[in-house]
Amino acid sequence: MNLKELTKDIVQDYESIPKIEINDICTHSDQVTNGSLFVAMYGEKFDGHDFIQKAIEKGASAIISNGRDIGELPIPNIKVANPRLAASKVASEYYGNPSKNLKVIGITGTNGKTTTASIVYNILKSSGIKCVQLGTLGVIADGFKSEKTLTTPDPVKLHKIFSDFLKKGFSHIVMEVSSHALDQMRVSDIEFDVASFTNLSPEHLDYHLTIEDYFHAKSKLFHGLSITSTSIINFDDKMGKLIAKESKAPVISVSKTGDSDIYFSELKCSINGIKGEIAAGDKVIEVDSALIGEFNAENILCAVGIANSIGISEEIISLGIKNSTVIPGRMEVFYKNNGGKIIVDYAHTPDAYEKVLTTISKIKSRESLLNVLFGCGGDRDIFKRPEMGRIVEKYADKLWITPDNPRSELIKSINDQIISGLSLQKHADFDDRGVALTKALNDLGAKDILLVLGKGRENYQEISGEKIEYSDIEIIEKIINEN
Predict the structure, then answer these.
(1) Which residues pair with 342 in a beta bridge?
(2) DSSP label at residue 31
């Protein structure tokens, strides 16, 4: 596409833009090739304007910048107020505005995004719809090898993914939408047909600084909807009604009780899963799910609200829920040969800890000891570390405190901050997660439970700026097989 056509919606002096052919759009100078349009953006660590010269040397045909004085350039320099927004607009234009020709479902919230997206994906697949799931688990679609991405990719990659799958005959995209993506305008030019809110609790405050800023970031998804879109809002969460007020689209409320549009008329949660009936207008949807916990009942409700809003029948919705037997890294259950139970969950926020631990404490037998292995990420909200320790101590018989992506921070410093929230002496702390997990597994009694929190199915530890191969699941499976 030529530069003039590509930038028609982001410049006022349209006629002054030359008709240079653009072969690619890049936001990272390392990706620039001959004919690229390089968009210089501020990042969390680097400023793209510092890499403009490198982009030119690598063959960039044009630059989009924020208008600051960078001197005369040998190629066109299009100055805009907000390069992030410009990147979104030109990426959508370059790839033919693919979201206009797809049914796009966006799911946001502190917890539950991945599980809700996975249930919706299975419902759509059960109905024969060619669909894509995009989020923490990567890019998932029938016939394609799962590809890891950010929870919500940058706008250039995002529009390319949409375009590629549209060309291959896919019709629906189910995607997680992170607060970072909303704040950084990665989805500004995605046309969402349905948006769903799962819940909101303090998280990412190292980035958003206040819970109010975090709320406003999440609410942008609903501000941006059209009147022909639909919002599915979890009213069991205290922030649900506030999010509903932010929606430009009609709202369908869901909750476990009858005080909403879609609700459980019958609900039973046990160690064996979730069973019941959901009332959605004049529809009754049978629920027989292997997922565990009332928080997953809320995720099922959001998924039902989404599926119902796009016209999926109750029989197919029930089948899709039943087919969602395991969500990778979300309350995944493993068994030692002696009968000991291991549960792996990605929970890494105080709210998620409370929900997971409350669930397990309700359904475990009285004679079962609950061991919890966990840690806190480095270079993230330091104030939640003592709180997470307190929550675990409230429910656990033994705490195994370990590294969980310490990044640039000292492991001992993070562990000490967790321990500062404890009042009892029933913990052990480790500087090696694998050593801790191996010991915890070997010590696990026949009637006991080991809850492994934080990493889910991640296959690395991020330590001192390096991603080192590591997997809780591999260690668990190895010890199970050895025994």
Answers:
(1) 334, 450
(2) G
What are phi and psi for residue 367, nearest 5 degrees?
-85, -5
Confidence grade of residue 13 (pLDDT, cut at 50, 70, 90): confident
Give the domain CATH number at 389: 3.90.190.20
Q: What are the residues facing 156 on neighbouring strands?
A: none
Q: What is the pLDDT of residues 97-119, one digit of tens each?
A: 999 999 999 999 999 999 999 99
d(CA 167, CA 142): 15
Shared domain for 141 and 167, answered yes or no, is: yes
CATH of the domain at 171: 3.40.1190.10
End-to-end CA distance of the chain: 60
126 within 8 A of 319, measured Cβ to Cβ: yes
Torsional sign, CA 90, 95, 96, 102:
negative
The HSE-up count of residue 438 (CA atoms within 13 Å, CB side) is: 11
User: For residues 445-454, b (16+ Cβ closer than 10 Å) or e, as one string?
Assistant: eeebbbbbbb
300 shares a domain with 158: yes
**Residue 131 sits in the same domain as residue 218:** yes
String of DSSP letters for 90-118: HHHHHTT-GGGGSEEEEEESSSSHHHHHH
Tell me, yes or no, whether 414 and 279 share the same domain. no
| 308 has a pLDDT exceeding 70 | yes
pLDDT band at 177 (very low <50, low <70, confident <90, very high): very high
137 with 154, same domain?
yes
Q: Which of 323, 357, 377 is the last residue of a domain?
A: 323
* pLDDT confidence of residue 398: 98
Tokens 């917890």 found at? 111
Task: Flag whether the pTM goes above 0.85.
Answer: yes
Quick one: tokens of 241?
């009604």
The letter for the amino acid at 448 is: D
The CATH number for 20's domain is 3.40.1390.10
Phi and psi torsions of 244, nearest 5°: -60, -35
High-pLDDT (> 70) share of the chain, %:
98
Query: Where a domain ends, among 94, 111, 129?
Result: 94
The number of domains in the chain is: 3
Beta strands in 18-176 (DSSP E): 24-26, 36-39, 62-65, 77-79, 103-108, 131-135, 138-141, 144-147, 172-176
Pairing verdict, β 273-280 and 262-270: antiparallel
The residue range of the domain holding 440 is: 332-482
User: Do both 159 and 211 map to the same domain?
Assistant: yes
Q: For the chain, what is the radius of gyration of the CA atoms? A: 24
Which of 167-181, 206-220, 423-437 is least confident? 206-220
- 256 with 109, same domain: the answer is yes
